[in-house]
Specification:
The protein has 14 helices and seven strands. By secondary structure, it is an alpha/beta fold. The chain has a seven-stranded mixed β-sheet, sandwiched between helices. Helix 1 (12-20) links the parallel strand 1 (2-6) and strand 2 (23-29). Helix 1 (12-20) packs across helix 14 (396-410).
C-alpha cells in the first residue's frame, strides 16, 4: 500500500505510516528545512532496509556531508520529496511530479491507496483566533483544505486521513468544517471525525487532534475503534538516560545507564543510536531563577506558579493580567506532559526541564522524544527550525496506530 503526504512538515504522520508498512509515493512540503528533514529520513529508511545504517550514523556524527549521504542512495529516494507550496499556481506542476513518481513504480499501477496530511492549522486554532481581531476569517489557510481535496479528486485514493486541531470544528462558527464535509461528500467520500488524544496511543504527552478519516462511497470501510493504551510509564522515563547539563551546554553521549523500558518498548532508542540535538539553550540567570521557582512550586504538591506570583525583580513584563502561565514545567512525574507546541522555537519558558539542578528548558532531542520521534530521527536546519518542525508534528506513535488500523482494512 502506498500514500501521498500533503503539508508533510517534518514527517511525523508519514513516519507512522512507514513504520506500519506503507510506502510513500511523495511528500509535499513548502518549508525547506522540513523538506530536507524528509529527504534525510527517506535516506535512513533506504539504508536501514539495505543493511547500511552505519553510513547514516556517520552522517549523524558529522563525519560525512548531506550531499555525500544523498549520493549513496538512488535519486528517486529523496526526489520523492517535493519542496513546494500547495496553491493554485503550483498544484498542476505538483500533480505532474507525483504522476512521474507513480509511473516509476510499476507495482503501484498509477494508483494512490491513501492520502494523508493536514493543512497548517493556525487559522483554526483557538489561540490563533484569540490574538487576531478578525478571528483569522481572512486567513488564506482557512481554505487550504480545498487544495487537499484537489488531490483527492485527481488520485481517488481508497481512504484518506485529514489531521488538524479540534478548533476546525468551531472556526467561523463551524462553517469551514461544514463546507469541508459537504465538499468531501460531493467528490465521493464518506467521512467521519473524532477528537483523539496522543496520550491514548502510548505518547507521553496530552495532545488533542482532530482526525478525519474518509473512504470512497461504496467501499466497506469504517472509522477504526481505538482502545486507549494502559501503561505505567512516566514522562521522566524519556529523560533519565540523557546526560544532565546546564544552560548553554552540549552533550553527545548517552548516560551510562540502561534506557527505560518505555524507550525500548516503543522503539524510541536502539543500541546503535547516536545522540544528536542534545544542546541546551543559553539562559540569563534571571530566567533560570524563575525556572527554579516554577520547579519548586510543582514539586510542592503540583502547584502552578503564576507570573503574577513572581517577585518584582524577576517579573520584568508589565502585563501581569494575561498569559500568567508563560512559565511551565514538563511534568516528569506524570504519565503525560502538556502539549508540545511550535512556540518552543521562540523560547523554552513553557517547557522547563523538571530537574531543578539543571534549571533549563528542554533540548531538541527531549522535545522530539516527548513527541515520540525515535532518536535516529535527524532534523535539518537550525535549532529554531528543528523545534518548529517538532512542535508542529503529529506524534509518530499516534500516526502508526492510525496507519495500522487502516492497513488492516485495506488488506481485507
Amino acid at each position: 500500500m502506498n500514500f501521498i503526504d500533503l503539508f508533510a512538515g517534518a514527517g511525523g504522520l508519514s513516519e507512522g505510516f512507514i513504520q506500519s508498512g506503507f510506502v510513500p509515493v511523495a511528500h509535499v512540503e513548502m518549508n525547506v528545512d522540513a523538506s530536507n528533514t524528509l529527504r534525510t529520513r527517506a535516506c535512513y529508511h533506504y539504508l536501514d532496509k539495505n543493511g547500511q545504517l552505519d553510513t547514516y550514523y556517520k552522517y549523524e556524527k558529522g563525519l560525512i556531508t548531506r550531499d555525500y549521504l544523498y549520493n549513496l542512495v538512488p535519486p528517486a529516494i529523496y526526489e520523492s520529496v517535493i519542496n513546494a507550496e500547495i496553491s493554485e499556481k503550483t498544484i498542476n506542476d505538483i500533480f505532474k511530479q507525483v504522476d512521474e513518481l507513480l509511473l516509476k513504480n510499476e507495482n503501484w499501477k498509477k494508483q494512490v491507496d491513501v492520502i494523508i496530511g493536514g493543512p497548517p492549522c493556525q487559522a483554526y486554532s483557538l489561540v490563533g483566533r484569540a490574538v487576531k481581531d478578525d478571528k483569522m476569517r481572512g486567513d488564506y489557510r482557512n481554505f487550504l483544505y480545498k487544495m487537499y481535496c484537489r488531490f483527492l479528486r485527481r488520485y481517488r485514493p481508497k481512504m484518506f486521513v485529514f489531521e488538524n486541531v479540534p478548533g476546525l470544528l468551531t472556526a467561523s462558527g463551524g462553517e469551514h468544517f461544514r463546507n469541508l464535509k459537504k465538499y468531501l461528500q460531493h467528490i465521493g467520500y464518506r467521512v467521519k471525525c473524532q477528537e483523539l488524544n496522543a496520550k491514548d496511543f502510548g505518547v507521553l504527552q496530552s495532545r488533542r487532534r482532530l482526525i478525519i478519516i474518509g473512504w470512497r462511497i461504496g467501499e466497506e470501510h469504517f472509522y477504526p475503534e481505538f482502545v486507549p493504551i494502559k501503561h505505567g510509564y512516566l514522562v521522566s522515563d524519556i529523560l533519565n538516560d540523557l546526560p544532565k547539563m546546564q544552560a548553554g551546554e552540549t552533550k553527545n553521549r548517552y548516560r551510562k545507564v540502561a534506557p527505560s523500558m518505555y524507550l525500548t518498548e516503543y522503539g524510541i532508542r536502539t543500541e546503535k543510536d547516536v545522540l544528536t540535538f542534545h544542546v541546551a539553550r543559553p539562559h540569563i540567570e534571571r530566567d533560570r531563577e524563575i525556572y527554579r521557582k516554577v520547579i519548586s512550586a510543582w514539586n510542592d504538591g503540583h502547584k502552578r506558579l503564576k507570573y503574577s506570583d513572581l517577585p518584582d525583580e524577576l517579573a520584568t513584563h508589565k502585563n501581569k493580567s494575561a498569559f500568567l502561565d508563560r512559565f511551565k514545567i514538563v511534568e516528569g512525574d506524570l504519565p503525560a506532559c502538556h502539549t508540545m507546541m511550535a512556540h518552543i522555537s521562540k523560547d523554552g519558558h513553557y517547557f522547563i526541564h523538571p530537574d531543578i539542578k539543571q534549571a533549563r528548558s528542554i533540548t531538541v532531542r527531549e522535545a522530539a522524544r516527548i513527541q515520540s520521534f525515535p532518536d535516529n530521527y535527524f532534523f535539518e536546519g537550525s535549532r529554531t527550525a528543528a523545534f518548529t518542525q517538532i512542535g508542529n508534528a503529529v506524534p509518530p506513535l499516534m500516526a502508526k496506530a492510525i496507519a495500522t488500523a487502516l492497513l488492516d482494512q485495506l488488506n481485507k
